[in-house]
Amino acid sequence: MVEHAQRLISGNPSFGQRITIIKGKVEEVELPEKADILISEPMGTLLVNERMLESYVIARDRFLAPDGKMFPTTGRIHMAPFSDEYLYVEMANKSLFWQQHNFFGVDLTPLHGSAFDGYFSQPVVDAFDPRLLISQSTYHTLDFTSMKEEDLYEIDIPLSFVSSVGTRVHGLACWFDVLFNGSTVQRWLTTAPGSPTTHWYQLRCVLAQPLYVMAGQEITGRLHLVAHSAQSYTIYLTMSAKMWGVGADPGGILQTSTAKLELKEPYYRLSQPQAYMPQDQQQLPLSSLQAQGSGQQMQDGLSPGITVDQERDSAAFTRQV
């Protein structure tokens, strides 16, 4: 990368008077003075994959002047439960190969359980239809200007949602956005479902055991990310909801489903057909993408491409111009 940048500077002499390239890791290089602006692209899948945010924070502490600016300034991980029967069946069917009792004379069934667990340990990376979301979203904020490196070693996010429909909950959908907070202008880069697709797409954690919910029912849980030496995270997901039926206690029976997934080993589901309307025809209810709060609070906090209709107190996608 340094060699390519140097060739660009050599081919544009006016740049050479203003740009100095220093080869090395931000954790090791030395600068003669503090910087006024720190610019980086440290985002990975689910914002934190590849663990470049830690280097970004280290660069801030080592090089940024007290009144300096960081771009991006803030990141948010958004989460909402989803229902996608097609995806669940696709994931479950992957392990059918290992149910063969006579594969050229070999009984493969002893490995079926491991194969099933292995497929569901892969987060699904793709661009999905936002209509698959079944509740308003919540989000967890990372303030790059003030957070510590240690804050990224473990990230613990409590979950609480209210289902808008009666359905099966197949897991948790996640995406992120980052804020470029300039002196006079704010710009959001979003990876939200329904927005123009980026190379980060969205990420879904699929539960091997879905939950059953009714409209208006609460879904609770926890998303716990633990960093590891492979420059990524292990994802621990717990989701719970009550279920009522014949013979159940008046308070219901608590369903709980858990998952352990490796963010480093996703299933890139990029060649699958997607059910989208053309962008200029989209006018979708986006209660599922709103943060909790008043209409104005939601409008202030939403990423580009998502607006709140104050008259209807609902949200809708609009084309970005």
Automatic annotation (TrEMBL):
It is an enzyme of class 2 (transferase). Its EC number is 2.1.1.319. It is found in: Cytoplasm; Nucleus. GO terms for cellular component: cytoplasm; nucleus. Residues 281-321 are annotated as: Disordered. Keywords: Chromatin regulator, Cytoplasm, Methyltransferase, Nucleus, S-adenosyl-L-methionine, Transcription, Transcription regulation, Transferase. Residues 76-227 form the Protein arginine N-methyltransferase domain. Signal peptide: none annotated. GO terms for molecular function: histone H3R2 methyltransferase activity; protein-arginine omega-N asymmetric methyltransferase activity. It catalyses: L-arginyl-[protein] + 2 S-adenosyl-L-methionine = N(omega),N(omega)-dimethyl-L-arginyl-[protein] + 2 S-adenosyl-L-homocysteine + 2 H(+). Pfam families: PRMT_C. Residues 281-301 have a biased composition (Low complexity). One of its GO terms (biological process) is methylation. It comes from the Eukaryota. This is type I protein arginine methyltransferase.
